[in-house]
Structure formats: C-alpha cells, structure tokens
C-alpha cells in the first residue's frame, strides 16, 4: 500500500509517499480501506517541526480517518466487510478508569493515531474494532473523516467543558478553520448567540451563512473591540479559542464577567504572559480541551443526520500532493478542513 512519510520536518518539509506492506488484522482487529483523512493543524505542526513530544519519528500521520471495512480478523463481532466507519482519535484499552468514564482519548495506555502509532495518511489501516464506529445513513464516508476531529473535539469543548447554555453569547476565534467553523455551528445548535472572528476576508461569505450578521473581521481594529460592541460592552460568556497565543489577549479581552475561555489550539507554538488580575477580576475561568470520546462522535453523527451540523471540507487533495494540503493550511487558504484522498 502507499503511505505518506515526513522525511525532513521544517517550514518547507520534505514529504514522501512510500510503498509499504499492507497490514494484516489480528484478533479483534479490522483492516480499513481509507476513503478520506482530514489534515489537522496538529499534523501541520509535526510537519513544520513545531511539535515533537511523543511523536514516533517514523510514524504515518493522520488521526481523522474514515473508510470501509476491507477485512476482519478473528473475534470481530460488530462489523462486517463493506461497512463504512469512522475511527476514534486514539487506540484505547477500553478497561482503565478513564476509558470507563468515557474519556477514551485520554486512555492511560492509549496511543494517538498519527502520533504514537500509524495513522490515516495511507491507503489502509488496521485498528481494533472498539476504535471504529459504523456510519448511519445520511453521512457520507468522505464527510465522516472529520467527525471525530475537528467536529467531536469542538462538541466536547462547547458542551462538556464550557457548558454552553441556551441564550449565552459565544465567540469563536479562527472561525474559518476546521475547529472554528464547526464550533460556530455547534454553538448555534446548542442555542447560543454566536460571534465568528476571522482575519481572512475571503472566508466571510461562508461564515455569514453560519453566523448571520455576527462575523467579526480582525485587522486594524482589534476583534475584542468589535466583540464588545456587538454585546453592548458586556463581552462573550464563552470564548472558544482555536488559534492560541497569536490571539490570546484579544480573546481574553472579549470575555464577559464570569466568562469561560476554552483553549482548543496553538497554531504558532508561542507563549503568553499576562496579568493574573485580568482573570481574577473577571471571575473568569480558562481551560484547555482536546480530544473526543465515542459518545461525542456519535452525537456529531446525530447532529449531521438532523441537519444541524454541516461538515465543511474545502479541498480534497490526492495523497501524492500532500505538500499542497500542507501549504493550504499553513497559509490559511482553506475554509474548514482539507482532506487527503488516498
């Protein structure tokens, strides 16, 4: 099978498609023919050399995976050949305290796909049956590649971490990106008033469809000033920051009294230093969030089926042209997700 490897990371990384042996499923495992694999900023950070901790040096990247069951190993009971499936983000044990609590993505012995073990930038992948979820009618196998990340990740951040309530105001930074554009839709589905912040003027038309009249274009005027203007100087009850250090202070300044900020991404690998009084006297909370459980993935599939959530994939790129996908994301030329099609 063909698989993509990072030969030399850097701002202009050297990538190579190699021919390697197709894996064989063992007991309880399934061979999946990959239909689509989303390219996350996590993958781009590894390609750029910004993220190294815990990354297997010769790993196949890609943790956003959908496909069709090609072969099943012994003791597989719930899947059959031809089933369309989406994977979880981690190979998890299913038995530790975290797995039993519904936090499979933080399994104590878990291995992240495309991080510690081989991921989806290839033609095939072998995964345990427990790490695969069958697709319902109405969700295409290509759309499904971004159901766990970014969509499930955004759902967890909004529903379980920020605990967004109906009628609250939610500001999403980096709203034109993969996490952002789906966080905007999910916040709306939860009954919130949504403001979508972006620095990309070309993304305004699509964002305006998901957040009519509430799209904030950053530039000469800091987007926090616009967020305050939109809320009569009250600020947002919840800020979902998908960008990180580059917009941290604007995001913090957009936060209302008793506001909750959830950090979902760090695009530039930067650091921030701030006065703790900015948090203390807002009575605010700042939390990090990552990952998505099987429950979140199933809930996303339900939202898509109900027409409340639309997977946004702006570019579909052949595996051999993965460098093009890298540049689309690094240069912020994509809207939503870019997907590799093996």
Provide an overview of this structure.
- The protein folds into two domains: 2-134 and 312-341, Medium-chain alcohol dehydrogenases, catalytic domain (Quinone Oxidoreductase, Chain A, domain 1), CATH 3.90.180; 151-288, Medium-chain alcohol dehydrogenases, catalytic domain (Quinone Oxidoreductase, Chain A, domain 1).
- The strands form four sheets. Strands 3, 4, 5, 8, 9, 16 and 17 form a seven-stranded mixed beta sheet that branches.
- The protein is α/β, with parallel strands linked by helices and 342 residues long.
- It is globular and about 60 Å long.
- Helix 3 (147-161) crosses helix 9.
- Strand 13 (236-241), helix 7 and strand 14 (255-263) form a beta-alpha-beta unit.
- The protein has helices spanning 41-48, 97-100, 147-161, 178-189, 204-210, 223-230, 248-253, 277-280, 294-305, 322-330; strands spanning 2-8, 14-19, 29-39, 64-72, 84-87, 90-91, 111-112, 124-128, 132-134, 169-172, 193-198, 215-217, 236-241, 255-263, 285-288, 313-318, 337-341.
Would you summarize the structure shown here?
This protein is an alpha/beta fold and 342 residues long. The chain contains ten helices and 17 strands.
List the helices and strands and how they pair.
Blueprint: E1 2-8, E2 14-19, E3 29-39, H1 41-48, E4 64-72, E5 84-87, E6 90-91, H2 97-100, E7 111-112, E8 124-128, E9 132-134, H3 147-161, E10 169-172, H4 178-189, E11 193-198, H5 204-210, E12 215-217, H6 223-230, E13 236-241, H7 248-253, E14 255-263, H8 277-280, E15 285-288, H9 294-305, E16 313-318, H10 322-330, E17 337-341
Helix pairs in contact: 3-4, 3-9
């Amino acid at each position: 099978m063909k698989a993509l490897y990072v030969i030399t990371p850097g701002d202009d990384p050297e990538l190579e498609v190699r021919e390697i042996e197709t894996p064989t499923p063992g007991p309880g495992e399934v061979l999946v023919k990959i239909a689509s694999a989303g390219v996350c900023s996590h993958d781009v950070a590894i390609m750029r050399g910004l993220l190294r901790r815990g990354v297997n040096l010769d790993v196949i990247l890609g943790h956003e995976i959908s496909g069709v069951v090609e072969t099943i190993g012994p003791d597989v009971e719930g899947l059959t050949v031809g089933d369309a499936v989406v994977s979880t983000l981690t190979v998890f044990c299913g038995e530790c305290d975290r797995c039993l609590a519904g936090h499979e993505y933080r399994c104590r012995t878990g291995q992240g796909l495309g991080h510690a073990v081989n991921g989806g930038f290839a033609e095939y992948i072998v995964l345990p049956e427990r790490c695969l979820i069958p697709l319902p009618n109405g969700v295409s196998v290509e759309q499904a590649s971004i159901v766990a990340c970014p969509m499930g990740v955004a759902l967890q951040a909004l529903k379980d971490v920020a605990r967004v309530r109906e009628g609250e105001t939610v500001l999403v930074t980096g709203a034109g990106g993969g996490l952002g554009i789906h966080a905007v839709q999910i916040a709306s589905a939860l009954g919130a008033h949504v403001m979508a912040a972006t620095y990309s003027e070309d993304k305004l038309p699509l964002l305006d469809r998901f957040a009519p009249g509430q799209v904030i274009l950053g530039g000469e005027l800091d987007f926090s000033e616009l967020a305050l203007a939109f809320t009569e100087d009250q600020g947002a009850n919840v800020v979902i920051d998908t960008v990180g250090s580059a917009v941290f202070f604007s995001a913090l300044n957009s936060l209302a009294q008793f506001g909750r900020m959830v950090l979902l991404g760090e695009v530039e690998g930067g650091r921030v230093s701030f006065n703790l009084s900015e948090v203390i006297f807002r009575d605010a909370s700042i939390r990090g969030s990552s990952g998505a459980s099987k429950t979140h993935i199933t809930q996303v599939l339900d939202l898509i089926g109900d027409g409340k959530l639309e997977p946004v994939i702006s570019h579909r790129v052949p595996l051999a042209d993965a460098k093009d996908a890298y540049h689309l994301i690094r240069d912020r030329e994509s809207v939503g997700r870019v997907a590799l099609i093996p």
